[in-house]
Structures are given as structure tokens and as C-alpha cells.
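Quick log. Single chain, no ligands specified.
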Amino acid sequence: MPINIPKELPATEELRHEKIFVMDEDRARSQDIRPLNILIVNLMPEKERTELQLLRLLGNTPLQVNISFLRMKTHEAKNTSKSHLDTFYETFGEVKDRRFDGMIITGAPIEHLEFEEVDYWDELTEIMEWSKSNVTSVLNICWGAQASLYYHYGINKYPLPKKLSGIYQHRVSDQTINLVRGFEDIFNAPHSRYTAVSMEDIEKDPRLLLLSSSEEAGAFIILSKDEKHIMVTGHLEYDADTLAEEYARDLSKGLDISIPENYFPNNDVNQHPLNTWRSHTHLLFSNWLNYYVYQQTPYQWD
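-> predicted structure:
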């Protein structure tokens, strides 16, 4: 089934090129079906790229999905045009009276800041508080996962000695949990961050389940026992070349940065990296939409 996205969204052409079924708002209105309504809180600087990465995953399930994009009113985006934001994004004040079946909070390259130092922290905490009664399930990615763990469970991040960047192997702790149903015992996933959360803090919190971790990258997939919150500390949604572009960007800034680990073939930056995590990315998103959104959300909100 298709994803329903705003007309003229730049990602539409690429999604159709990839044979992902896209439906615009006019056609969607003609279908007698209860679609899932998903709100994407896009905190990433290159918002159009993140839109494409997430939409191709949300459009690869049997469910019809309506997508809404949310931006921070208290933050001025520097890498996305104002016209794009004005056309395709809403603010919290414009959506707070609505209910959503699912919500995604993306990462953000602001790990050097304490949470309270982030200029839109108060606005984001208002959204996270609102989600408790207005969203069925929330999927939090990278910094968004750290923010969720901090706000909802009091688990803070801590700085790493150097940037964690590369592709790392992860193990699944419990194959019976629906979120990781169908996962291999060992699978790859990208990480790109300067901070981490304590596995010990997660494991001792009775409200949380640590479903997947890595010896090198630490805690990866965390599920709240009430199944309301899912925290993914890496970037399964990344394209094959995303880490390469981040590495080139960091070098151009003069940062003392290491080559992403386990990423370039033969560790040669002139060779094109391969996507070795794609199938598990699609599986995670389809499991989330099926088991934690579609099967849990009310057909009609009160």
C-alpha cells in the first residue's frame, strides 16, 4: 500500500523511481480506508535527505500511511529553505489538537550540548509530553533516542573519547519480541555520534528492555515495557554513502576525525561502500508499523 505525502514534495520523484507506491492527498481522499497517521519530527539539518530516507521505509509495508512533517518553531533551520519548510512542514501549535498513530523523532547533530542547552529543548519536551496521550507509539532515532531516554526515564548521555562512526555488528537479546521478529542473530547497523548511553542504566531500569547491543557501539535498540517508546541509538535509515559524506564534511571542517570503521571496502575511501543493513532497516520499520502502531492504535480516537 502507498504512503500519502504532500503534493510536490521533492522526495516524490525519487520514491517513484525506486518503485515505492506514492499517493498524493487528492487520490487518498477517494479511498474508503483508515490510513495510519504518522508525524515525523525532523530535527536533522538536511531535512530533504532525511525525508527520503524515512519515506522509503514507511512506504514499504502493506499499510496506507499518511505523513505529516513537524519542524521546531523555536529553531531556525540553516540547511533547508524557508519555502520548503513553509510548504511541507507544520509547527506544534498547528498539530497539537490532532491525534497520531505513530511519531518519529529523528537525530540531530547537537550532542555537544546538554539537553537543556538546546534552543528548542522546551518545545521538544512539550511535544514528548503531549505524545503520551496523543500518539500510540513513538520511534526515536539517535539523538532523539537519547533525548527520549533522558526525558522519560532520566537516563543521561555521556561523551565518548572520539566519534563513533562506522558499521558495527549487533546481537539480539530476545527473538520473541515483536520489534525484532525476523532479525538475524547478528546484524549490521550504522552509528554516527559523539555520545552514548549506559547499558547498565538501561538494564537496571524496570521500565525498559534492551533488545539489541554491540560490543563496540553499546546499547542499540531499547523498548519501553509499555511499548510506547522505541529508542534506536544508531542510524539504520542511512543510505550507503551517508557516512562517507559525513566523513568528507568533517574533514573539510578540519576536524580530527577517524575513517568510519568497517565501512569502506578494504578501508579505502576511494571505494564505494556497500549497504549491508538495508534488510534489517526495512524489517524494523515494518515491525514497528505493524505490531506497535497498526495493531495497537484505536480505529477511531475518542
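The chain has a mean pLDDT of 91.
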